[in-house]
């Protein structure tokens, strides 16, 4: 694994400044991105792309998310150090590692077996203590619920009801919802056992959320 050099840290500082200029204002989120060596999620031949503010293919039809998108979703989530966080869509593991800078209680589930095995090995080599699972993330992780925060890193046609049921009262779900082309970022806060408050934010384009409560439901 490529070491984290002074040059890499300088590239992250420049990236954080770019994200701040684009409207990311949560200093804890920016500090978290500064701490995660994004180049270690890239094959050596593609590391020149690591600190550009863009998504990049990682195989299996998936991408490592654009840093702005990672920061935007994380900012909406408002993670506290004691929060239990569920991430739907581990992917490369980059977003997971950003969350781990904010709380040590991160659970992440990946649908694709090949990506899961690759990312499990990568995070182990990076000594990142996430709880990783392979399975249908659209159904959440009911055996480990409830969660204070749930973050979905793939576009869903609807808000999956299993995820709502796994939110603690007072907790929040951040999820992009829409069609296959564009999705609106939503934040759903569970006000009581039966009451949820929905907020809408910017539009994005994510890979599809696969599973029984997603695009293969």
Summed up, what is this model?
The chain is an alpha/beta fold. 28% of the residues lie in helices and 26% in strands.
Description of the structure:
The chain is of the alpha/beta class and 217 residues long. The chain has helices spanning 6-21, 27-35, 67-77, 94-100, 113-125, 161-165, and strands spanning 56-59, 62-64, 84-88, 105-110, 131-134, 147-152, 167-178, 183-190, 196-204. It has a seven-stranded mixed β-sheet. The chain is globular and about 50 Å long. It starts with 5 loop residues before the first helix and ends in a 13-residue tail after the last strand. The mean pLDDT is 94.
Q: What's the total helix number?
A: 6
The order of strands across the largest sheet is 5-4-3-6-7-8-9
- As a whole number of angstroms, the C-alpha radius of gyration is 16 Å
Report the sheet with the most strands, covering strand number, pairing sense and barrel closure: 7 strands, mixed
- This entry's quaternary arrangement is single chain
Could you spell the SSE succession in H and E letters?
HHEEHEHEHEEHEEE
Tell me the strand percentage band. 25-35%
State the end-to-end distance: 38 Å
Overall shape: it is globular
Helix content: 25-40%
Mean pLDDT: 94
Total strand count, please?
9
Low-confidence segments, given as residue ranges, are none
Helix- and strand-based class?
alpha/beta
């Amino acid at each position: 694994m490529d070491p984290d050099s002074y040059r890499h840290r300088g590239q992250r500082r420049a990236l954080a400044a770019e994200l701040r200029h684009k409207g990311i204002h949560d200093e804890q989120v920016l500090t978290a991105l500064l701490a995660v060596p994004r180049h270690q999620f890239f094959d050596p031949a593609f590391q020149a792309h690591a600190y550009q503010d863009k998504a990049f293919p990682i195989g299996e039809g998936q991408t490592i998310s654009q840093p702005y998108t990672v920061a935007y979703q994380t900012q909406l989530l408002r993670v506290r150090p004691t929060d239990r966080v569920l991430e739907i869509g581990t992917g490369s593991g980059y977003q997971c590692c950003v969350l781990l800078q904010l709380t040590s209680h991160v659970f992440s589930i990946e649908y694709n077996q090949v990506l899961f095995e690759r990312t499990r090995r990568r995070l182990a080599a990076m000594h990142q203590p996430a709880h990783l699972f392979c399975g249908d993330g659209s159904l959440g992780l009911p055996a480990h619920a409830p969660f204070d925060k749930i973050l979905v890193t793939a576009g869903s046609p609807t808000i999956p009801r299993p995820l709502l049921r796994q939110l603690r009262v007072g907790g929040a779900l951040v999820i992009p919802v829409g069609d296959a082309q564009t999705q609106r970022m939503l934040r759903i806060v569970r006000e009581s056992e039966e009451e949820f408050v929905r907020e809408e934010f910017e539009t994005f384009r994510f890979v599809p959320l696969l599973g029984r409560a997603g695009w293969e439901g």
